[in-house]
Design brief:
By secondary structure, this protein is of the alpha/beta class. It has a single domain, classed as Rossmann fold (3-Layer(aba) Sandwich). Helices cover 34% and strands 24% of the residues. It is globular. The chain starts with 6 loop residues before the first strand and ends in an 11-residue tail after the last helix.
């Protein structure tokens, strides 16, 4: 019997006022696989992962985790499910008033109720896995470069050993070299954990490196999905225009 996907969205729709953001989105991600969702600004990528995480309710459709419908899960059940998730936010989203190790260990301290000494040890270990020295642990976010902050955000995403990690524009704001470092670290950590990953990005170099598969979202629908190696030869007019940055094609400047 084939195992259920770790994450599945079935016929998910969402609108805000008169604007249709998602229009019957179907996505399934198997255990241990990495899916990257690409698409222009305002096409529903962030809304998709917010619905997958339970932060937004869809107007229609279902969200399933391991084959179980969790679309309308109770607050208690949603908290239990989210304990299996990790998240690397766009811009790292570190708390300015907390030290780096307290940022990394935030979930351990506040949700898992791990003792501070043990939480700090795990945070320092996680920082080491993303190339940050132990003395970084006691610093504050404003004392770190953008690339180092992103590494700390990645350490926070993996420290609790999640089954599923979401990456929201993981290379935004980074120069090409630091972006590639983050991409390599993402691949390394996802493989180390054996977890599932769902990413959204405009960065095609990132999509090619961190994704086993890529799906393109346009006007609230998945218009193509395939191996990341096929991005340049997808045979899909939307993907071809997006990948090659062409002004002419089915995608207009307004979306």
């Amino acid at each position: 019997m084939t195992a259920a996907p770790l994450l599945e969205l079935r016929g998910v729709s969402k609108r805000f006022g008169d604007k249709v953001v998602l229009d019957g989105v179907d996505i399934a991600v198997a255990h241990g696989r990495s899916l990257v969702i690409i698409g222009g600004s305002g096409q529903g990528k962030s809304v998709t992962i917010k619905i997958a995480m339970g932060l937004l309710q869809p107007d229609a459709g279902q969200v399933l985790i391991d084959g179980v419908d969790v679309t309308h899960a109770s607050q208690k059940d949603r908290a239990r499910l989210m304990s299996r998730f990790g998240m690397l936010f766009q811009g790292a989203a570190l708390f300015d008033s907390l030290t780096i190790w307290e940022n990394v260990a935030f979930k351990l301290l506040n949700a898992d109720h791990v003792k501070r000494k043990a939480a700090k040890a795990r945070a320092v270990e996680a920082l080491g896995r993303v190339g940050l020295a132990p003395d970084v642990a006691g610093l504050y976010p404003n004392e770190l470069s953008g690339g180092m902050q992103k590494r700390a955000g990645l350490a926070r995403a993996v420290v609790a050993r999640p089954d599923l990690i979401f990456f929201d524009e993981p290379t935004t704001g980074l120069d090409p070299i630091n972006a590639d470092v983050i991409n390599n670290l993402i691949v390394e950590q996802v493989k180390r954990l054996g977890c599932t990953a769902v990413s959204i990005t405009h960065d095609l170099a990132s999509a090619r490196k961190i994704g086993d598969e890529v799906a393109m979202l346009h006007k609230g629908k998945i218009v193509w999905r395939g191996p990341s190696a096929n991005l340049d030869n997808s045979g899909n007019a939307y993907v071809d225009q997006f990948v090659h940055g062409r002004a002419e094609g089915p995608i207009t400047a307004e979306g």
